[in-house]
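note to self — DONT lose this again. spent like an hour looking for the file last time. sequence + predicted structure for the chain T wanted, 116 res
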Amino acid sequence: MRVNDFTIVEECDVMLVCVQEEYDNEAINWSRIEFVDNQEALDMIAMKPMNIFALVDEESKFPQATDATLLTKLNNNHGRNKNYLKPKSDINPLFGLNHFAGVVFYDTRGERMCRR
């Protein structure tokens, strides 16, 4: 998924909230649509400084970087975020993200090479 994809999801969330408020203000008879607010996950992935995309990009620029150093940076920067799932052990190269698609696991092996 690209940063633009996350921007589109964020804009859809904002638009849905605005439309629901407008319907309420105009007393239109309708059924409220419940949805998960993904803003915190979107910020972690693509918006905040040191977001996941930025860390992957940064690691791809350092010749001495490894898949393990990428995972360490991700864990250090996002390990306390409720939407980030740290690997269960040091030998596991997978981290998880809880976002609009549910919990999805990503493998860091070879990721920095794909970005070069």
